[in-house]
Amino acid sequence: MSTIYYIIQKIENKDESGLNYLYKNYSSSLFGIILRIVKDNDVSEEVLQKTFVKIWNNINQYEEKKGTLFTWMSTIARNTAIDKIRLKSFQNTQKSESYDSTVHNYATTNINQNNIDVDALMLKLEDKYKIILNKIYLEGYSQSDLAKELNLPLGTIKSRIRIALRILREELDSEKGLFLGSILFFTILMYLIKVL
Length: 196
What we know:
By secondary structure, the protein is mainly α. It has two domains: 3-92, Orthogonal Bundle (Rna Polymerase Sigma Factor, Chain: A), CATH 1.10.1740; 100-195, Arc Repressor Mutant, subunit A (Orthogonal Bundle), CATH 1.10.10.10. It has helices spanning 3-12, 16-38, 41-58, 69-86, 88-96, 100-108, 116-123, 127-138, 143-150, 154-174, 181-195.
C-alpha cells in the first residue's frame, strides 16, 4: 500500500494525522501557487487554509486515474485563489492599494540572464496587450470579467489576446538565436507567470 493511499484513507476516516502529513509536505508548494495568483501573503495564508479545508471535506472526490494527489490539490488551491480574487471585496481592497510598489519591485528585481530574450520580446508588446495577457493568464480573469473590469467590449478583449499572441509568435519566428518558436512561446507564458 502506497503512502499516498494510506494518507487518503486516514483523511477519509477523518484522522487528522493524514491532513497534518499533507500540510507538512505540500503546504509550501500550494502556498506558492496561491501567492502567484493572489499576490498578498496574508490573503494567501487564508486561501491556503480554505484549500486544506476543501481537501479535508472532499478527499473522496480524488481519483488517482485522473492525476496525482498533488495535481488535484493544486487545482483546488488555484481555483480557491481565483475565487478569492474574483470577489468584489477583494478587488476593491486591491484597487485601493498603490500600484507603485509593484512597479518598484519589478524594476529593482535582478533579471535572470536566461530571460533577457523574453524581456526583449515582451517589450515589443504595447501596454494594452500586456495588461490583457497579465489579467487573463496570471490573475485568472475570464474574458467576460475582464471586459467588465476594463469597460471594453468582449470582442475587443478577444481580439487583443489574439493579436498579442500573434505578435509574440511572429517575433519568435523572426528571432534566429532562440529555440523553436513553440517551445519559446511556452517559456514566455511561464515567464509571465513568474514576473508579472
